[in-house]
Structures are given as structure tokens and as C-alpha cells.
Amino acid sequence: MVEELKITVVGAGSWGTALAILLAGKGFPVRLWVYETDLCQVMQSTRENLLFLPGFKLPANIEPINELAEAVSDSDFIILVVPSHVFRGVLSQMVPYIHPDSILVSATKGIENDSLARMSEIMIELLPETYHERIAILSGPSFAREVCQQTPTTVVVASKAVEVAERVQLLMTTPYFRTYTNNDIVGVEIGGALKNVIAIAAGTTDGLGFGANTKAALLTRGLAEMTRLGLALGANPLTFAGLSGMGDLILTCNSALSRNYTTGYKLGQGNSLEKIVTSMHMVAEGIKTTQSAYQLALRLGVEMPIIEQVHAILFENKKPELAVYQLMTRKLKRENHQIQDVQP
Prior knowledge:
Layout: E1 7-10, H1 14-25, E2 30-33, H2 37-46, E3 48-49, E4 53-57, E5 62-65, H3 68-72, E6 77-80, H4 84-94, E7 103-106, H5 119-126, E8 135-139, H6 144-148, E9 153-158, H7 162-172, E10 177-182, H8 185-207, H9 212-232, H10 243-252, H11 259-268, H12 273-278, H13 285-300, H14 305-315, H15 320-328, H16 337-340
Parallel strand pairs: 1-2, 1-6, 2-5, 6-7, 7-8, 9-10
Antiparallel strand pairs: 3-4, 8-9
């Protein structure tokens, strides 16, 4: 049964590589699409992703492939793990080669800048209607390195089709990687995307030298903003108390393993965004997602003061100290009325 399934992971960053290793560990043959030709050759020869996930050997049943058409052809499960800003382009190239019965799983956390579309919306736009019920979203608190170390981890897979969610759940679950199901695609995607923006804010406050009080306030009010936007888009508010909401928020706002947290920390220490981005060879999704979230909030009339201030720090050269001061001196409010007043 295991040998009959064909699995493709599209994207060989740290998370894509970690998922390929996890699935290969269950005995599945896994084709791992690698964008960079030279990296693909290195991975084939060394059996290690020295650029994005050094220190972990690729099992023999992982096949690094540079040709996208070859990688996705005849696959039963295709897991997309590419940055959000290239998601549309990569999927467009894949479409002619996807098997009619394939299940497509997005493990990308972000919102496209120009269209303000979530990854599932891009998939629905580009894929024939026959695939629409076979789309799933994988999210939750999961650092790639810890998954490869087999640290106990829990995630969530969302799909409108219960059978599809359960098939992905069964595919992904191991004794150290527990997968839950959810039917709220919107909430799971919004939580997974916006927690990266809040993580930039959390890193910034730590970089400024603030303490635990500040972090607790930021996570709580950040969760309120995520929930408000999710409700405006039709999400289930309970989703944000789950793995793709609070769970991922706790993870990314408290660890230097998070690229978004690290970006914020360096901003808080006075580094410019340009300098930070230049020094990184992996994408901090929260930078681009900040632009999308800010524009979505304006479009929908949703109050998101933390997102607004992160946007100002990143793209308007606002001093982080001033952003914090303005957040703390806003008009006084009741705690929950903003969430309650937004109808799904």
C-alpha cells in the first residue's frame, strides 16, 4: 500500500525538505522538486540540503528533481511548499501535468500581494473545477528542524471535503507528527499567514528590550486582530484558538528559529529592513504578508492597529519606539467589542 502511493513535494526550502523527510520516513517514495539547479545536483550527490536544512540526511527514497513536469506527473499527493510570491507562477506551470485524481495540499503560509488572494483561492482560480474538492491546507506550529529531530509536533489540515482532509491526515501522521482536521480553510489560512506579521512585531519588542508583559499583550491583541480579519472573511472564530491560530502564534513569536521573529528582533535593534533581507537566504513570509494584511484591512474596514504599525515600521521608516508608543496611547476601548461586532 505504501509503495503504491506517489508523493511530490514542490519546494525544497527548509519546510519542504522536512516534509519530504517525514513522508519518506513512512516508506513513501517522494519526489522533491528543487528550483535551483545547482542545489538539486548537490542534494543528489550529498543527500543533504546544505543550503536550507543542513544536518539532516535525505533518505534513499527521496528523489530531488529539477524538472517540475517530471516531479508532479502521476502523483497521488502534491504538496506545495513554495514562497507565497511565487506560488501562482509555480502552480501555473504545474497545471498541465497534474494527474486528474491528485490531491493538492498547500503548506505555504501567506497572502498574495497584488490580488490579496489566499493560496486556496489561487488554486481554485488556476485549477479546473474537478480539482476544487481535492484542495487542502496544512498549517500549525511546526519548525522544520524540530520536525526532522522528531520532536512531538501537532498540525492541522483543512479542506471543505471531509474525505480529503482525512486522507491527508492519514498521510501525514506519524508517532511524532500528529495531524488534526478542520473544515475552515479561511481561518486556517488567515491564522497561518498573519501570525508571521505578529511574529515580526514580537521580535521587534524583544529587540527593543521589552519584557514578558509586552509579549503577552502583543500575542493577545495580535490574536484579536487575526480573528477580526478572519471573521470579516467568513472564518470560524474558534479556528483562531487552535493550532493554526494561537498555536502557531505562540511558536513563531517566541523563538529565534522563526525568520519572522528574527527579522523583527533585528529591526528592534536598529537594523534596516534592506540590510536584514540581504543577510537572509530564506524568505520571511511576514514581510510580504504585512503588505497584504494591511491592504485587506483597509478594503474590509477592519481595525488592525498592530498590523498597521508593523507596516509603518517595514515600509514607512517609522521608528519602532514610536510605533509602540502610538499603540499604547490609542483611544481606550473595551476588550472584546471589536470581535463581537464583526459578523461572519
